[in-house]
Amino acid sequence: MLLGLPVLTLAIVLGALWANLAWRSYWNNDPKELAGAATWLIYLGYLHLAGRRDRWGSSAPWLLVLGFGAILFTYLAANLVIPGQHSYSGV
Question: Are 45 and 17 in contact (CB under 8 A)?
Fold first, then answer.
């Protein structure tokens, strides 16, 4: 997590910079962009809760499960099923 979140953050920032060069917009509200941002927020929430010693800290591992589900949704549903700029759904 301590390595993965900075790499994901860097990928999102570099992707936004590339999108600005290619399409003159950093953000297009595409389903895959939104799913990627939601995944990033879930893992950021995990890092926030993991260091807590109260009852909320014990629920932090469930955010890892939710984050993995968000990754699967991003790669499968947002890429193959939901139409958008980053999808291959054929719709």
Answer: no
Q: How far apart are CA 87 and CA 27, in angstroms?
A: 15
- DSSP per residue over 20-68, as a string? HHHHS-S----HHHHHHHHHHHHHHHHHHHHT--STTGGGHHHHHHHHH
Task: Look at residue 14 and give its three-state secondary structure.
Answer: helix
pTM, full prediction: 0.83
Non-local (6+) Cβ contacts of 1 within 8 A are 43, 46, 47, 50, 64
19 contacts 10 by C-beta, under 8 angstroms = no
> What backbone phi and psi angles, to 5 degrees, belong to 50?
-65, -30
> What's the pLDDT tens digit per position in 17-55?
998 998 888 888 888 889 999 999 999 999 988 888 887
- Check: CB of residue 10 under 8 Å from CB of residue 63: no
